[in-house]
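Newbie here. two chains, one complex. Structure please?
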Amino acid sequence: MKAFGTLIATLDTTNKTTLKLEAIDRFLSEAEERDKLWFLALFTGKRPRRNVSTALLRQWAMEITGIPEWLFRESYTAVGDLGETISLILPEPVAYSERSLSEWMELIAGLSNKTEEEKKDFVIHAWQHLPHAERFIFNKLLGGSFRAGISAQSLINALATHYSIDASTVAHSVMGHWAIDEVSFDDLIKGGYTDVQSSRPYPFCLAYPLDRTAAALGDISEWQAEYKWDGIRGQVIKRNGQVYIWSRGEELVTEQFPEIRDALLQWNGDFVLDGELLAFKDDRVLNFSDLQKRLNRKNPGKKIIQEIPVMLYAYDVLEWEGEDCRHRGLAERRALLEQLYRENACPEVRLSPVIECPSWETLANMQQQARDVNSEGLMLKHKASPYHTGRKRGDWWKWKTAPMTIDAVLIYAQKGSGRRSGHYTDYTFAVKQGDELVTIAKAYSGLTDQEIKEVSSFVNKNAVEKFGPVRTVRPELVFEIAFEGIGFSNRHKSGVALRFPRIVRWRRDKTVRDIDDIEEIKKMIR
Amino acid sequence: MLQFTPKGIYCIPGRFYIDPWLPVDLAVITHGHGDHARAGMQKYLCHHLTVPVLKTRIGPDITVQGLAYNEPLLINGVRISMHPAGHIIGSAQVRLEYRGKVTVISGDYKVQDDGLSTPFELVKCHEFVTESTFGLPIYKWQTVEKQHELLQDWVQQNRDNGKTSVISGYSLGKAQRIMKALEDIAPLYVHTAIGRINQAYESVGIRLPAYQVLDEHTTAAQLDQSVVIVPPALLDTKMIRKIPRKADAICSGWMQVRGARRWQHADAGFPISDHADWQGLLTVVKETGAEQVYVTHGQTAVFARYLNESGITAAVIQTAFGEEEEQNGKPAEQ
């Protein structure tokens, strides 16, 4: 596992993309076929099931080291990663076992039908025979989760460069289902296994935020404007009488939206559509917080389906009767989509309306009022644009309404994990409710490293109480929090939940007296 | 014997302070780091190898008396002596003996022999004042030989790739240790802040590996395949940024944890520390035989609780030591 260990160490430590890509390239040249397949599987989210619970791993590690539970917890808080914590506290290995990544993965997969005692023997033996760097990786492999400093997209780019093929082909090929025992690495990357599968999705075409005035885009008649819906981006596939719904997280979510699946089963023909999954009732798109109540329920019950019906607003067609039509211009695809809809119209799958507008000025007005229909703004798509793979600048723009903002005070802070462990980076904010403070949002990003250090220093000096890793701090630091949406919720004491909250800036000019009041904030909800 | 006051740790019968953070008449100093040796004291007492460091950092005109290790001095009936703490060159544990009772204030210490500082000496005592910077079981150092080997391999790899190795480590202590680890491996350049400390040591006869001070006349060609050592705060300065092909690394105990390595945006991190690791702290505390332990800085609550659960009476003391370390993940750089 040394080669893989070296790769992970490099990906993990450096933040230079070139060094990361070099490291992947070296691994691809040197590693064994099956190791490469496992590597790809791990990094594209096709991990084997977890066969040993983290609770057991913790328990065994505490048994071996004699470390009491509270001390283990403190260590975990300082490290921010369970597999790493365990690896660090264990005694030095007694010997070294040289096994490849795939050998380890297969041994781990083989644990599924073993007794707890057998699992324990295996794990402890491995711990005693691996140095820290590899022991850490072993723990991550056991845990079934693997994240290292590289995105799936960068990995795909590295593979594409290594094989001198198009990134979209690679993305297409490695997405969807494939099993290690059934493929060869080269064939897989080059697309040898993709066509046999009817569920395979296409990579989503993504838009950039509009970075200029809309008028600077030129002639408005060359652009198609639509609302930018605040739901779940979804790709629906109907092939050979089967329907598949993919989310943008490349997750198959068909079971979560039975009404959409059933409606599409009634549609004629085979096709792949891109659209937005939304909660929709009484001819109105509902707030995202309503849609959230529907998410992550496998086979939702009748009651919830009635309470919060979902629908798909379709806005693109990627494949029609087996033909990939992504290369055709948007205008042509839209016409095809409309024809498809005319033949199959139903309430569960509709067309996201195109906004016809004679001038950029009138469109700008529509954009500003976009929140009235619970959308986040507008999408501007060039009528001649193909359906790109991933993010490509120039053809698709998201033109979001200015985010809403509030001023809130920091009341809880927690140390981050991963890259940010050791610093207080996770903050909870509160606003006023009369004379009291009520929590309204958690936010992680938006501060510079320097500011995070300053806030961490404040937290160290002003911590009032400790709850495990969480510190209650004196309510003094005021931040401007921006968010894209707001809805009622009982997740926070304030009774509202913000969508995509993030810190815009530290308001050093403001004190806790200047923060917003919850009653005023509730008036923003539509 | 001791009183923990807002000015610092006070020796009641001796009427002096140890590493005070506010001005006092007589300050006994364990070592020259900024959180232990501060400006404004009427008189300083420290190990004689720390004298030039204090003069360089605080001012040439301070009143300071140097002692050798194990050389006793009587102040108001208290017998003071300095004992090697192994933290940096000249670092000392302060042993106080009064009417048969012995208290040791250890300052910062490490048990490993770095080949440069006088190795740590265990001093039996009734009361022991300890740090706990790395007081968690996740901190477990490799042998000094292994640490040096890893650093040397990394430098060699950079040289093979035609790169300059830029290494950050604080100017007092860590920088000299890095120099020692890389002696004869590559030409060594140091930042002027480190150069000043080196001169202070050399002025009292310490022999350091050969080095040159990095200045505006240093050319890119000279730096090619060399090692440049800078204090952490100066890693991101113009002089360093303009080195054309470089790889950077941080040497610090915090680098033991992946998250800390990534936070620092360096190409590599080496857990090389001048503090004791978890096992080092525990061993020292136990072997001093102390009945009462005071934990001054670092993972104070964790370490004190663990000691109490192991049957050693320990209490947490609020001090101004190590403040910077906790907040920034790296020790204070003056």
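Moderator note: Residues 404-522 of chain A form a domain with the OB fold (Dihydrolipoamide Acetyltransferase, E2P) fold (CATH 2.40.50.140). Chain A has a mean pLDDT of 87. Thread marked as resolved.
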